[in-house]
Specification:
Strand content: 25-35%
Protein name: Anti-anti-sigma factor
CATH architecture: 2-Layer Sandwich
Shape: globular
Mean pLDDT: 89
Structural class: alpha/beta
CATH topology: Transcription Regulator spoIIAA
InterPro entries: MlaB-like_STAS, STAS_dom, STAS_dom_sf
Organism: Kineococcus aurantiacus
Low-confidence stretches: 1-7
Distance between the termini: 24 Å
Helix content: 25-40%
CATH class: Alpha Beta
CATH superfamily: STAS domain
């Protein structure tokens, strides 16, 4: 799913994959309002499998409140399962921390 073609930055994309023991949500490019409808659909897809969710964020170049809202919805609706944010750049980690979502989301090291 791709959105945001009218802007000069890399378009945002989100994709959900099921691996054997967890769900992977791949975020890339600009995670903003243009990607919002796709992000809403991905929350339901990611949680339907009832497996741990890993959000790959190493290729995110920008994130606004839409992206933070996505992470908050994912974490709040995941129940006992923790959400892991994998490879997030410093700017995304900072946003998650400032929004006080870091108590709901685990981090793996950035690349």
């Amino acid at each position: 799913m791709t959105s945001n073609d009218a802007f000069s930055g890399p378009p945002g994309s989100v994709d959900v994959r099921l691996t054997g023991d967890h769900v992977v949500v791949c975020l890339a490019g600009e995670v903003d309002a243009y990607l919002g409808p796709d992000l809403v659909r991905c929350v339901d897809q990611a949680l339907a499998a009832r497996l741990p969710v890993v959000v790959e964020a190493a290729r995110v170049t920008f994130m606004d409140s839409t992206g933070l809202g996505f992470l908050a919805r994912l974490a709040s609706r995941s129940g006992e399962r923790r959400i892991t944010l994998d490879g997030a750049p410093d700017v995304v980690r900072h946003l998650v921390h400032r929004a006080r979502l870091d108590g709901m989301i685990d981090f793996t090291p950035a690349p």
